[in-house]
Amino acid sequence: MQAQRLPLLDSFGRFAAIGIVGFLIDAGVLSALVLGAGWQALPARLVSITLAITTTWLINRRVTFASRTVPFHVEYAGYFLIQLAGVCLNVGVFLAILRMWPQLARMPVVAQAAGSVTALFFNFFVTRKTLYSTREVQ
Length: 138
Prior knowledge:
The protein is 74% helix and 0% strand. It has helices at residues 8-36, 41-63, 72-100, 109-129. Helix 1 packs antiparallel against helix 4 and helix 3 packs antiparallel against helix 4. It has one domain (8-129). It is an all-alpha fold. The mean pLDDT is 87.
């Protein structure tokens, strides 16, 4: 029996829930590097976001987009490139907020949250319409 494609709201819900996991990884690593290790916010964010993207891909490919018709490494590269575009949007919002409210540099998670929410919608729709457009989902 062939898997049925999830309705849009169901797949978005899963994607968003997995995004929360990614956000927590991103926020935890970002905070640890800035507050614990004394890193600058931007380099710390680049490390934290890479870890978050990899984690969300691993979970999304099992939970949201289950069919496997593309080799593992090709799928990861495609997902990473799409998410990288979302990261550019995310980091742009992040930096704009830090410029508007410099005091938030000591609490970068606030700016991170705004960037993450903005990019969530972009990431979901582009990922669903391109990388997983012809693939079955659970």
